[in-house]
Design goal:
Five copies of one chain form a homopentamer. Chain A is 53% helix and 16% strand. By secondary structure, chain A is an alpha+beta fold. The longest helix of chain A has 66 residues. The radius of gyration of chain A is 36 Å and the shape is rod-shaped. Chain A starts with 26 loop residues before the first strand and ends with a helix. Chains in contact: A-B, A-D, B-C, C-E, D-E. The interface between A and B is large, with 76 and 70 residues.
Chain lengths: 357, 357, 357, 357, 357
Amino acid sequence: MDYFNKTYHPPGTAPGTLTSSGDAEEKLSIHLVDYTSEAYQEKALTAPDECLPYLDRESITWIHLQGNAQVGTLKNIGNVFGLHPLALEDIVNQGQRPKIDEFDEQLFLILTMPLIRDGTPDIEQVSLFLGENYVISFHSGEHDPFGPLRLRLQKKSGRIRQQKADYLLYCLLDLIIDQGFPVLEEISVEIETLEGEMLDLNAKQSTLSKVHEIRRELLLLRRNLWPQREAINDLLRSENPLVHESTLIYLRDCYDHSAHILELIENYREMAASLIDLYLSSSNHRLSEIMRVLTMIATIFIPLTFVAGLYGMNFSHPNSPWAMPELHWYYGYPLILGVMIAIVIGMVIYFKRKNWI
Amino acid sequence: MDYFNKTYHPPGTAPGTLTSSGDAEEKLSIHLVDYTSEAYQEKALTAPDECLPYLDRESITWIHLQGNAQVGTLKNIGNVFGLHPLALEDIVNQGQRPKIDEFDEQLFLILTMPLIRDGTPDIEQVSLFLGENYVISFHSGEHDPFGPLRLRLQKKSGRIRQQKADYLLYCLLDLIIDQGFPVLEEISVEIETLEGEMLDLNAKQSTLSKVHEIRRELLLLRRNLWPQREAINDLLRSENPLVHESTLIYLRDCYDHSAHILELIENYREMAASLIDLYLSSSNHRLSEIMRVLTMIATIFIPLTFVAGLYGMNFSHPNSPWAMPELHWYYGYPLILGVMIAIVIGMVIYFKRKNWI
Amino acid sequence: MDYFNKTYHPPGTAPGTLTSSGDAEEKLSIHLVDYTSEAYQEKALTAPDECLPYLDRESITWIHLQGNAQVGTLKNIGNVFGLHPLALEDIVNQGQRPKIDEFDEQLFLILTMPLIRDGTPDIEQVSLFLGENYVISFHSGEHDPFGPLRLRLQKKSGRIRQQKADYLLYCLLDLIIDQGFPVLEEISVEIETLEGEMLDLNAKQSTLSKVHEIRRELLLLRRNLWPQREAINDLLRSENPLVHESTLIYLRDCYDHSAHILELIENYREMAASLIDLYLSSSNHRLSEIMRVLTMIATIFIPLTFVAGLYGMNFSHPNSPWAMPELHWYYGYPLILGVMIAIVIGMVIYFKRKNWI
Amino acid sequence: MDYFNKTYHPPGTAPGTLTSSGDAEEKLSIHLVDYTSEAYQEKALTAPDECLPYLDRESITWIHLQGNAQVGTLKNIGNVFGLHPLALEDIVNQGQRPKIDEFDEQLFLILTMPLIRDGTPDIEQVSLFLGENYVISFHSGEHDPFGPLRLRLQKKSGRIRQQKADYLLYCLLDLIIDQGFPVLEEISVEIETLEGEMLDLNAKQSTLSKVHEIRRELLLLRRNLWPQREAINDLLRSENPLVHESTLIYLRDCYDHSAHILELIENYREMAASLIDLYLSSSNHRLSEIMRVLTMIATIFIPLTFVAGLYGMNFSHPNSPWAMPELHWYYGYPLILGVMIAIVIGMVIYFKRKNWI
Amino acid sequence: MDYFNKTYHPPGTAPGTLTSSGDAEEKLSIHLVDYTSEAYQEKALTAPDECLPYLDRESITWIHLQGNAQVGTLKNIGNVFGLHPLALEDIVNQGQRPKIDEFDEQLFLILTMPLIRDGTPDIEQVSLFLGENYVISFHSGEHDPFGPLRLRLQKKSGRIRQQKADYLLYCLLDLIIDQGFPVLEEISVEIETLEGEMLDLNAKQSTLSKVHEIRRELLLLRRNLWPQREAINDLLRSENPLVHESTLIYLRDCYDHSAHILELIENYREMAASLIDLYLSSSNHRLSEIMRVLTMIATIFIPLTFVAGLYGMNFSHPNSPWAMPELHWYYGYPLILGVMIAIVIGMVIYFKRKNWI
């Protein structure tokens, strides 16, 4: 997940300007689902205008656009569905902040869907339009995330086929938000592994890097999911006629999940910070331990070595009584051994008193 | 207490889908209490439908479901009590965020009850429905926590038998929330023990692990109890006709306890963080102490040892006047001892000036 | 001051249950003051019911209950003054969170009064009831804190005798809140002493413990005084008919003092945290200093000592030209001294370049 | 970017006092653009009064003043455009806090435009007046930032020529705010470089300085852009008749970008703090590693060296049996070697048990 | 600047009690200014009652009281101007929290004026009363801060003489608040100096003390200026008839400056905290560097010294083949030199692999 993932035009570009993302060739698939409580129809379209007959009908129409589009196609899509240029720009410029915009006859939502890609959490943008009896969804990632929903529509499972377009919007929202749970479960497993390594004093450099990476991931998830919660809250309070009273209880459930995910993210962030604290204090503890042993060995033996060195000196003078007479005393050697033992005992008493042993 | 304790369906599952938690066999006991100010009846039921005759009466009916239920039973329960599918899903999927939902003729509450399990704090979910004259409670843990309440009902103690179903709800709430006090008292005792160990400079690696664990427990408690306080606040402000004016003063007391518990949690979290600070600075202090001793001993004796080593060299040349003539001076040895004492005095003066002694 | 100072009943106890605090014998003194702008009467009562004739009069009656009461006496008090069972329970269960409850004809306040006990800050609970023309105050500590107020009433000093019962309540509030100032002044003196010790590099282990203790005290003061400020704010906004317009300006002054005290607490908390930072960085600085000296001495003398040791070896072979011929060179010794001096010079240059000297 | 970049008059100066910034000579260029949906006119003016004929027309007039003005010119400008003295003072005293002021027939905005100057982020003040059919913009930097906008006006690209003056204001706002994206992209690149250096354990002193500098830059950006977001929010909610309903959706987009930029800044600040944590813990880890090696080598060899030194002593006495008899034992040398090997083995076992090897 | 600077009465003192600050003798100067747009009069008064004739006139009267007053004089002042006893108490008890109180015909403000005293920031209290056509100001410091304002009044500079008393109040407010800018500029200079010292690795113990002192000063400034901003905000929203519509735009400018100052304080606080982080990590870096050098030197030479010491031992036995036969080998010495070189090479390879060289 990149630190900076917003696509933006050079400042000063006219609002609503469209530029296809990079020089990538067009890879756009348009998938139409049209249903009433009785009928169900699914169809892959080749051009946006094929949708037009469906939009005017009483039935609920869900058009899903998957992949990258060229500027021409984009403008075409905008015209067909009557989309606001600013909304269209936001769809193209990936990395938008989640939000909800209320246009005259449409509700426009930008959402971010968390997912696990190659073992690390990532974010993908999903854009949704809700109209009187249609929903249009945009997703530029590789995999179409809405397969399970289409299956439910086909199978008539749950109440989805009896409901209006706003319920379909809720189902999409629910699916997008709930992707957060497996992502956070994955992160929680990683945190517990790292915590285990630290408590077993097995922390390596790589443990630290991983803690840093998790903090980074959580920070980026939070940046993307916080405004999403606010957007859903705005949706709940908007009293927009496109969202019916009966759907609100479901959207409140969405809001709840969104809030739950953010609370988990906050929790994990604090746990990651606490892991750093734990690491710092354990490593301090360990360093103290090591230094204590070194100091004890060194302070005991350095004076002893000095004494031994002292009597290893070769001062000699045939007649001088000052030329290391101790070396020639009868009890010189045991005396000096006694001095050394006395030094050791003194040191040990000192350490005991300092509470180091 | 796990980092991630929410049970969730794969994203895209229809809302209200029920799956029994794991392949565990059904272990559900249904306990009915029915009372007016005069009469009191207690009964263990075998099937949910046996409640039906009680629900319609004027008397207050409290049905408590304890344990795990299979999908079939769950759906049956939902039908009998007219529960909303989303609520039913939340009851089954343990690890929900506390909340309050207002349905047409019911009030639905998810609460988390703190408790001490095997010496460490944990959380269990309790779900409550309040209807016109009944309360339904769900709890999937091993022990039925509501025994004391049933006793009060039997004994007619307090005003509980004179009151409506909302007062029974308050009593349940009060019992659940107040479980927080013994849990926090337990934690406060642990913090004081750890504080004592640190102030006595007895901190071991295990002390650090325990501080980390307490931070983790407090974080998880906060995550679960914070939305609970908000839910009770929502209940206070909801002006739902199911909750009577006269019960509000009691619910405000509940809110107060909830707030008190959260303030204690916040307090303990800051104390735990302060303990880490205390540990880091004490251990720094100790390390400085150790290093100071090592440095003093080493800087005094290393030069001395060098001097001793110097005159332990075996340079000799029959005629050379340069072959360590000092060794053969008349006062060579006392001179060199004098040099050594001078070095020691110099070092001590240096340390004094550096304020190390 | 304890981490956990709330008295609570086992969860599930009926609300309003009274249990006398511990098995301590009853030590309750009831003190009645009754006054109008002209008359003043003070009386020690033996039983709560003796108050009854005073409550109905036009005069302002202030009943102060000091000490512990047995259950029987408590219930009696509750009946005499018509106190709500929940309020009565809060009075008995010390360690409540400050709050204000509005009952039908009474206003009930729980307050916490900071004080210095045995040199450390502590908290005591004071409970107050305000009625039409009476105030009832409860305090279970040893010393009656309201002596100065009674003196003012006797002496007719200030406007207190001309005012209603709400002004008496204000006077009590003011006295309780202002106890915070001497407590905080005491703490500020302690912080300045600790700051001085740290800046003079005189920090001992006990300095750290004291900083930790002050953080703990401030945290606990904040926990108790924060909700008190909110309670007074609620009182200001309550528009309760028992509190007259003219008293509001005085209560606003109370609120102001309360806010001032909390701001001081916050300030002192941050200063204490900054002291820890200061300690950590000074001790780091000191450790660096120590290590620098050790390293310089050691890195200079260790190679020298090796060289000296080298030529202290006893290799000898009658004919071998390889058996330490240097020892027998004419200029061997001055040469080796030269090598040693070269090593010292090299090291000093290295340290200079590293900016260590 | 300076810590303190506000220009201010000595306290007590009359509000609206004008002093030209420094003794710099006047370098002011006045650029006028006048357009309707059909006509377009661009003109460099020499004196402010030349604008007057344009202000009264139906066409939209945009006057841009670039550079420093002398006091006389400033007063002249104020008179010509009817600017409030306080606003005029704020234009001159660079380093103002972003804000919006509503005057009788004008809307006055102070904005801060982030930019990269000499490789580091900086801030420049832009001041805008919106009138019924004119916009006046002030910018004192070297480069006129509004070139792209003038081009769009010339080329009639987008809807800008069909709209009122408030849409022109939006275009200016949009350009100013969007300058934040390239600045933050630049910073994100720097953070990633630093992160890489730290994770590769290549952190040098300069890495730390750069992290500090980035924190400083982010702090200063936040200080300047936070009130800007609030100002735009105030503009959205002001219901000022100068801002038409149809422009609000565009201004909301501006607000969104502003919020996005602030969230990025917050994110980067936390990442920078996390980098410091990462550095501290890695460097702790590394220090531990180093000390462990030192301690092992030292604690193994120091006792050995002592033993060797011991038997390098020269005690000798012709007849004394105490004069280091070990030296003359038949197996003395191998025995002492054995003792040394035993010491080494003992140490290694000790280290293994301490988990150091 | 002291931690605790509030003067307070012993708790329980009657509200409005006046005690002159200390036993200092009275040093009060009363300065009257009376003006209309045409006339201007300035006069030093000896007694408060001399103001009375001016208060009733149409002209604007500004009375400034500078210095300490005795109780008698204070009461006199209170009577003359009709000041509320609580306000009078706040004027006397220096160290109040900034606030605004609305009395019947007066507006009472307590403000804190930052200033630099003896090179360090400090705070002085200014109290203001606004009446229909008069302003009374109190300041107990040594220097009268309002000289520049009186000069403007004399000189008729700006619009001040045309305006009402509320504009005079604004001018006083503006002067008091703007004193914050030079104070903060001074602090910013100090922070930049400290930052420079740290980045140049020149940090001494005194650098750390200064950072701590700046944090303390900023904390105390914030504590005093935060409620001041709130007070001005209250004034803006109060809709008090004493403050006219036309003055509000000026007061909003005051609020803006107040907010700007607080944002600068917050910024500087974070920069100071970041400096501590920078110091800690640099000093860690430096310590690591030092230890690395020590460890390399020590681990290379300690084994060598041991080997040298080994062959300095004096084992000898006339016939034993075990008595250090190496010493008498033909190639003994070059062999042992070879072993030493091998040890050095081994160590260097080890350090290379550990990435220490």
